[in-house]
Amino acid sequence: MAKSRIKKWLPLALTILLGAIAGSGIALYFGLMHDLPEIQDLQSNKPLSITRVYSSDGVVLDQWYQERRDPAPLETIPIAIRQAIIATEDRNFYDHFGVDVKGLMRAVVSNIKAGRFKEGASTITQQTAKNHFLSPEKTLTRKLKEAVLALQLERRYTKDEILELYLNKIPFGSGAFGVQEAGRRFFGKELDELTLAECALIAGMPKAPSAYSPLANKEKAKWRRNVVLKQMLDVGDISQEQYEQAVSEPVVAASRSGKDKAPYFTAQLRKQLGEELGESLLYQGGLEIHTSLNYGLQKFAEQAVRKGVDAIREREGLAPGEVNAGLICLNVKTGEILAHVGGVDFGDSQYDRAVMAKRQPGSSFKPFVIAAGLEEGLTQSTLVMDEEVVFPKSRETAEWKPENYSGNFQGEICFRRALAYSRNIPAARLIYALSPTRVIEKAKSLGIHSELKPYLSLSLGSSEVTLLELTAAYAAFANGGKWNEPNSVLEAIDRSGQVIYRPRHEQKIAVAEEDAAVIVDMLEAVVKEGSGKAAQVVPGPVAGKTGTSSQCKDALFIGFTPEFATGVWVGRDDGASIGRTETGSQAALPIWVDFMKNAMKDRSVVYFPRPDGVISVFIDPVSGKPTSPGHGVQALFIKGTEPRKGAPELRLPEKFLEN
């Protein structure tokens, strides 16, 4: 009886069960289909817009994008890349219907054993669906959607069309999408120039683009390449001879430094504009960024830095990378950055020594002490003792005994000579008379934002600053005392041609124009009479100051003409000595001269501004005493402070009266 009941109801129960399963499957299918994207326009899928960065002389310096893609027809893609991709990603590509059932079952077993979503078993068709339509999240729902889309793609497109779509969309990292951009980005080659080994390396990268990039790790890239070549050998795509030749080929990646224009400049610009405009607009907005950089000057700057560093390396027997340099050139009137070199080779080191590095400026800090002194009545002819001195211990500092670099003393000299010959003891006496706090205030007004410690040794450049800060401050002297915030962006234009960003830059009066004129005149004396004589070969009026930190760890020359202010730093990133005699005059000044000679070539001569409130007087270059016209040197003074015959000599007081 019971058996007959079971027989009677069994067909009905099975029907209900199968119906439920089918209903669930249909519900699941339509649930997945509900929010699946349309695939009809897949082949017309366009790359996102590219933002281009222009120099002031119209050169494209860089291009920024979320994805850089240049689709290539399948017939132009090397057979070796196609074979390598199929051998590593989907050996059954031409046999399955979009989903590899055997591979899928293996992945299910592997995932169950692992207890998590570990292995995907995605075919090339599934990956094409994911790359075009879905997010990269690892979930069962996404995997099911991927499979459904793969089935639709297989119904609509041929295998070769799917493979072409895949090869033109696959991400390789470093902003490169598709095999054509991968060849250019990683090897600097077009598709028809790639070797078998390079094709295999490209094919092996999608598994982990950042790990297997030849730009990031050549050894890992080589290992992965050889795995791909072995798989190609195993499936019969290449011969044993081809395999052995390819695995023995060294990995030679494209050099970034050889391709990028002004890479240190554009790297800083990218960071700045990412904060100002947002990365979404920057990388997807198709903007035109017009910058202040002059590419002609930039090339001169890069050449001068390379040549100068090579000369130092040869003199000191240093290996490549052991010594480096930075150069920054500003428009004196506007503060616009005209040339920016942060190091010898951006591909080797992205550390920007012109903007990021804080190093001791040595004697190139002395003009700030002079600037503070001028406001207290100091003049070029003020006398100071250049002799041994010990400054007493204070609450902030220990006893201090400064020394001149030369190790000798010149006795009583005027401040014009003290600065021209970079005498340390006069600068130390001046900061002692002023107080370090007073000098810090003046340096801050000239845009030195780095922390300055209130020690007497500040007068000799003991506090670390950036090259950009120093150069912008010197530009203020040349600009009649007006300081400009360094700037690099002129404007940003969107795809419709509208200006969407035109930054405003701070400008302020940091030094009285009469004081600025006197400082310029004193810095011209450095070139005419003192430690910067090598700069005399640059045409037109030139002023500047050398700087050398203790043990020649840093060498600088900051100099300017009425149009350009240029700073050069040379040193080692580890803080070691460049060499026993590698001073600012020896190491940095030749780079400055090399650059500025080219920068000033064929330019008309312009002179420094001379306000009505100053007067030119002939003086003795050592004593500062007035001389007959045509004798001694001409020096500028604020009217009423110039030395007169028979008048008492002006000497530096031990302490200026506090205001």
From TrEMBL:
Predominant cellular place of this UniProt entry's protein: membrane
Residue intervals of the Penicillin-binding protein transpeptidase domain: 328-563
Alphabetically ordered keywords of this record: Carboxypeptidase, Cell shape, Cell wall biogenesis/degradation, Glycosyltransferase, Hydrolase, Membrane, Multifunctional enzyme, Peptidoglycan synthesis, Protease, Transferase, Transmembrane, Transmembrane helix
Domain of life: Bacteria
InterPro entries: Beta-lactam/transpept-like, Glyco_trans_51, Glycosyltr_51/Transpeptidase, Lysozyme-like_dom_sf, PBP_transglycosylase, PCN-bd_Tpept
GO MF, one annotated term: carboxypeptidase activity
Keyword Protease: yes
Boundaries of every Glycosyl transferase family domain copy: 59-232
EC number: 2.4.99.28
Pathway recorded for this protein: Cell wall biogenesis; peptidoglycan biosynthesis; Glycan biosynthesis
Gene Ontology CC terms: membrane; outer membrane-bounded periplasmic space
Record field: catalytic activity: [GlcNAc-(1->4)-Mur2Ac(oyl-L-Ala-gamma-D-Glu-L-Lys-D-Ala-D-Ala)](n)-di-trans,octa-cis-undecaprenyl diphosphate + beta-D-GlcNAc-(1->4)-Mur2Ac(oyl-L-Ala-gamma-D-Glu-L-Lys-D-Ala-D-Ala)-di-trans,octa-cis-undecaprenyl diphosphate = [GlcNAc-(1->4)-Mur2Ac(oyl-L-Ala-gamma-D-Glu-L-Lys-D-Ala-D-Ala)](n+1)-di-trans,octa-cis-undecaprenyl diphosphate + di-trans,octa-cis-undecaprenyl diphosphate + H(+)
A Pfam family assignment: Transgly
GO annotation, biological process: cell wall organization; peptidoglycan biosynthetic process; proteolysis; regulation of cell shape
Subcellular localization: Membrane
Family: In the N-terminal section; belongs to the glycosyltransferase 51 family.
Name assigned to this protein: peptidoglycan glycosyltransferase
